[in-house]
Amino acid sequence: MTTTRATAEADRLLESELTDDPGFLLVRARNICQGAVATKLESLDLRVRQYSVLTLACSGQAPTQRELAGFLQLDPGQIVALIDPLEERGLVRRVVDENDRRNKLIVATAAGRALQRKARVLCDEANAETMAELSLAERDILQDLLFRIAF
Amino acid sequence: MTTTRATAEADRLLESELTDDPGFLLVRARNICQGAVATKLESLDLRVRQYSVLTLACSGQAPTQRELAGFLQLDPGQIVALIDPLEERGLVRRVVDENDRRNKLIVATAAGRALQRKARVLCDEANAETMAELSLAERDILQDLLFRIAF
DNA sequence: TATTGTTATACTCTATAACTATA
DNA sequence: TATAGTTATAGAGTATAACAATA
Questions:
Q1: Shortest alpha-carbon distance between residue B129 and chain A (Å)
Q2: A34: CB within 7 A of chain D nucleic strand
Q3: Sign, CA torsion B7/B12/B15/B16
């Protein structure tokens, strides 16, 4: 995402009622945050989505691809293309669930866990930059409010 | 966006540290909100982006296409394709800026203003649904926090 | 020379449906 | 028959560069 913050250029547009639209604010905040994270993760050759999958694979919950799709709000068809490169790089493995052989459980390898720890640090940095204007208490409040919308 | 909330299916994944990542929460909240708004606006044959442009065109600020691009975090090249159908439908007009004939000012027509008012009502409904779990005071807080990240 | 809008192109993301293997 | 994963395809969204008109 090369998109500039491009704020100074059009300050007068803040007059618009769009500025009061929480949906619009969510889109802008998400774009800025996503852009910051994506930039940081480039150094590890990871996409934001791949980082999400890797983190879930590290959770110890051994999610199925179907569960990943639900949690990440993606179609199951997209999960395949998301996991393939991670598996090729040896970061995660697809383990057939012996209780139901249709399921493939996604689990991180040692290399995957190591990379996830590095990525996590970069993400935290990016998020801190994005929320630099907010106090730590405000960040906690935001997190709580977003969680209740998101789940 | 057909994406389901798909929460019940993978509640145990909430254990993952991803749940504490404000970037991930922003993405999920934005997806849910965007989906609700998009569904509502379908009845007016409006995309979310088009609604944003239309609202800015109604602001009385007569933005240039360049200013719209900055405010909406889009490349100038995309603004053309965004405005063309609105102009064809007679909702906005491109007015050459006589002070600088390179600029085209985007202004809403009477029909555009009427449609924007309808769309605004639908958006408010969608946003209210998205934030149903939050008290009115909490919605104000969220709006403030998001604004400070977004601008 | 620099900037606005325009056009074209390629790439990513998203949505949909059909196929296979297991149950 | 129903579900999990896979594959293919089309459409929407995004990034990039070149061009004409204007400054």
A1: 10
A2: no
A3: negative
- Phi/psi at A114 (5° precision): -65, -45
In chain A, DSSP finds a helix count (H) and a strand count (E) of 6, 2
For A15, A111, B38, B43, B139, the CA distances from B52, given in Å and listed in that order, are 13, 44, 12, 16, 21
B132 SS3 class: coil
* pLDDT for residue B11: 81
Cβ contacts of B69 on chain A, cutoff 8 Å:
6
Question: Which ranges of A43-74 does DSSP label H, i.e. alpha helix?
Answer: 48-57, 65-71
- Per-residue pLDDT band at A1 (split at 50, 70, 90): very low
pLDDT of residue B31: 96
- The rounded mean pLDDT for chain A is 92
B45 three-class SS: coil
Q: Sorting pLDDT into bands at 50, 70 and 90, what band is A11?
A: confident
Which residue in the set B22, B28, B123 is minimally distant from A143, CB to CB?
Answer: B22
Q: Work out the angle at residue B147's Cα, subtended by the Cα atoms of residues B31 and A124, and round it to the nearest 5 degrees.
A: 70
Asked if residue B146 keeps its beta carbon closer than 7 A to nucleic acid strand C, the reply is no
Which structure tokens are listed for A37?
Answer: 């994270």
Q: What's the CA gap between B4 and B101, in Å, rounded?
A: 47
Residue A45 pLDDT > 80: yes
Nearest to A36 by CA among A131, A146, A151: A131
Q: Which stretches of chain A are assigned E, i.e. beta strand?
A: 92-96, 104-108
